[in-house]
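Ligand: uracil. Inputs:
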Amino acid sequence: MRIDRLLSHLQYGTRKEVRRLIKKPRVTVNGALVRDPGFDVPADAVVAVDGQVLDQALAVYYLMNKPTGVITATTDDHDRTVLDLIAAADRRPGLYPVGRLDKDTTGLLLLTNDGTLGHNLLAPGKHVDKTYAATLRLPLTPVMQAQLEAGIAFKAFTSQPAKVTVVPETGAQLVHLTIGEGKYHQVKRMFKRVGNEVTALHRIAMGPLQLPATLPAGQYRPLTPEELTAIKALTR
Ligand code: URA
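Predicted complex:
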């Protein structure tokens, strides 16, 4: 892979930024300074920035059960972020959350430093299904359900038909909703538009990933090889 591509995949910046880094020159491959952004890096090469070795196989993939009260961002001036929940030993340059959950939303969040995978999962038109358990203020009526299933027209977009399952014995106040898009506050807005209100929101699945029932809020674990294969297959 080209050195500029590799570095930007590892989240050292945009192509333009990493080219500057290379031209400085601050990047070595197998101990030799590299000044050509198009330099082809052998798969087993030792790459370093400012003498700090990058592990090319260092891509990490964490599945987190996001707790309430933390921000889905890499930094924030006021609040704790999901990155603050990652142990120092597990941090990597460029680690970031793929997609966004509101501060008060809990559940499945993927974090990775594999910018390509994250980017592809969120690419417009990709529509990776996401399933949420939504606790509602009012019971879901058949009319509300039909509206959600038909798709709802907002100013900027129309939601694709959602899959809706009412969880039995919850007075129709706990609903599993599967949507393909991931617009800002989408689930809350969808229920609001049908005359209801989400009082708690928990993501239980994203594509082939399911939130393990045994993963406590605030904890994370690496994806299993099977999960990683399945999520990578989605982006091919
Ligand atoms: N939809 C929302 O309204 N909030 C989230 O956090 C995720 C989806």
